Structure formats: structure tokens, C-alpha cells
Amino acid sequence: MSGRVAPRIAVVVSALTLLVSLVGFIVTLVLNAFVFDEFDAYGEVPIPGTGSIELPAGEVTVSFHTMITGQPTSSFPIPEISIDIESPDGVADPVVTENIGGTTTVNSDTHVRVWLVEVAEAGTYRVATDGDVAGYINPRLAFGHGSAYSWLLWVFGGLIALGVLELIVALVWSARAGKAARPLAPHEMLSADGPQALHAVSTPTSAFQPNDQGVRLEQLKQLAALRDSGALTEAEFQAEKRRILDD
Asked: Which element (helix H / strand E) includes 114?
């Protein structure tokens, strides 16, 4: 029994690992998008308009931020907008790269990443924006950064891969253990030679040696059982019966 229990436990454990990893991945994805995402951490500038933004050194996200009515589709239309970032004296200009991200909406408040800005040195930067934003409610550019917990997605992603691998191994182990532990049916004790395999069927051991008549009776019982189970045809049964009785 222990040979069957261990692989079954492995299947259950690997399935639970996979389930927990999937749930954790989905929850982390939602939290990163709607809770932990600091897309406006450094401030906002209206479109069109100008403003001063304190930016740290490193990568900064720039998102188009507006209010909408209803729910946006995956192809949320981003208007034609432009941005100009003026660096403090003696500081290299930031490198602006277009990088369109996914659309996030919470209670009609919508933002979508448009640019990534590589800032060489922390300081106060002068930002000027412009664009065709007619029809948008309170449009502005938000400066911030992504979630600080995005690394959890990699952790749960790795656990998902591990869970899938463990589940495959556990299922193969369980299948092999079940096949090895399956008892043979009476008709499976016959070899490809048919009724001749009766000579290989062992009789129950006992403390005494049966006489010839007892052996014949036991063999006839086995023949009848094999015939009743369908392992022997009536013709094969009669042929074997005659052979036993003639011995």
C-alpha cells in the first residue's frame, strides 16, 4: 500500500503548489497594477501646460492620465501628445524613449504608460507638454515609477513552472506505481500458448502431498473457473479435461 500512497501524496502536493502559485501570481499582478503602482509619485503636469518636477536619478515612467466615462477597451486611444524636459544647469538631458504600457482604470480614473525617461542626475526639471486632447477630461502627464513588488511576479512565475514539473513527475510516478501494483486476473495467468500454460499455474501449498485423484480434481476446478471467466472456450475446456482424465 505504501508504494501507492507516496506517489498519490506527491500528486496532491504538486497540484496544491501549482494552485497556490497561480493564485499568488494573479493576486500580485492585480495588486501591482491597481495598488502598488506609483505612476504619479513625482507629480503631474497638465496637457497642454508647464510645470517643475523633482525627479530622482534613474528610470522614470511618464503616463497619460485622464478621467473617462464607462470602461475603456484594451485599445484605449492615446492622443497625439508631446513632451519637452529641460534639465537643470550643468546636467545632461534625460533620454526619453517611447514605451506604451497597459491601460489601468480605477473608478473611471485611467492611466497608461507612454514614455520611459532615463534621468542622469536627481534635480528639478522643467516640463512642457502639448497635444490634441480635446474630448479628454482633465488630461495630464504623470511622472512616477512601477511597483516595488514586481519581483514577486518572477517568484510566483518560477513556482508555477516548478509546480507543473512536479505534477508531471508525480503523475508519471503514480501511473507506474499503479501498474506495478495491479494484481493479475486469472485469465492473464495464461501465456500466449493458451491452455498449455495451465501447467505453470501453481496450486496452493499445504502440509501434505495430494494423491493423483486430488490433483485431477483441483485441475478440473481451475479449468472450470477459467472457462466461466471466459479465459477458455468450451472446446479448449473439453480438450484439457480429456487430457487430465486420460493421464
From this structure: strand 109-119
Count up the domains in the chain and report the number.
3
Q: Is residue 223 part of a domain?
A: yes
Residues 141 and 157 in one domain: no
DSSP 79: P
Beta carbons of 149 and 31 less than 8 angstroms apart: yes
Decide if 140 contacts 44 (C-beta within 8 A): yes
Structure-block grid coordinates of residue 36: 502598488
48 lies in the same domain as 88: yes
Give dist(CA 63, CA 150) in Å, integer: 18
Mean pLDDT in consecutive groups of 10 residues from the start of the chain, 247 residues: 75 90 85 75 95 94 89 74 94 93 85 94 95 92 83 86 90 80 50 48 50 79 85 85 81
Complete DSSP assignment for 144-173: EE--TTTHHHHHHHHHHHHHHHHHHHHHHH
Q: State the residue range of the domain holding 235.
A: 212-246
Same domain membership, residue 171 and residue 111: no
What pTM was computed for the model?
0.54
- Tell me if 207 is assigned to some domain: no
What H or E segment, with its residue span, contains residue 176? Answer: helix 151-181
In which residue are the cell numbers 508555477 written? Answer: 160
Could you give the CA distance from residue 75 to residue 14 in angstroms, rounded to a whole number?
38
